[in-house]
Structure formats: structure tokens, C-alpha cells
Amino acid sequence: MTKKRSRGRKRRKRKQTGQSAHASLAGFTPLILSKRIFEAIHQQVSIGQKQLSYRPSDKLIFVVLGLLVGCEHIDEINHRLRPDNVLLSAFGYDSCADQSVIQDT
């Protein structure tokens, strides 16, 4: 008798637990926050857009972080930055906006 394989099962993604592919950038977080680099973006950039989950300036910060982790296009944010919860939490974010939302901004 042979076993039937279940073809309809999807693999679950594993959540990251304390690991980041960009640990060196996360190590620079205290320096970046102490220099208040992103604070200037929040104060000086004004985009006429309503805020649902993220401020427009937060979305610009996600673009900057995406560039720092190696994204060449905005659509790469979903694959490189969004899954890296450790890096996002180092910068004070629980999650990252979807690339389509960032692109609209």
C-alpha cells in the first residue's frame, strides 16, 4: 500500500525570531536615532495625504530603509524589508507598509 501525498498543502512561512539579514544596519540604529536623521523627514516633509496606518513621512522612511537594505526598486520592499521584523522594530516600527501603498505616496 502506498501513501497518498497531500498536494494541496501550503507551506507556512516561518516567522523570524530574533534574526535579521541586516543586523549591521540594526546595529547602527542607535546612532541614526541619536542624530535624529529621520526626525528631519517627519518635520520638514509635508505630503497632502490622509493617514490611515502610516504617515506619508513614515512611507518615505521605508523607502530609505529599503535603499539601505539593497532594494533597487520599490516593489522589492515586500521581499527584503517587510519580512525583517527585527530591523523594523529596531527603528520603532511594528510592521512595514505594502509596496503599493508606498508607491502611491
Query: What is the SS-derived class?
Result: mainly alpha
Largest sheet composition: none
pLDDT averaged over residues: 81
Radius of gyration: 17 Å
Low-confidence stretches: none
Q: Quick one: how many beta strands? A: 0
Give a description of the structure.
This protein is an all-alpha fold. The chain has one domain. 46% of the residues lie in helices and 0% in strands. It is built from 7 helices and no strands. The radius of gyration is 17 Å and the shape is globular. The N and C termini lie far apart (58 Å).
Write out key terms for the chains shown.
105 residues, mainly alpha, 7 helices, globular
Short description:
The chain has 105 residues and is mostly helical. Helix content is 46%, strand content 0%.
List the helices and strands and how they pair.
Blueprint: H1 23-27, H2 29-34, H3 37-44, H4 56-68, H5 77-80, H6 85-90, H7 99-104
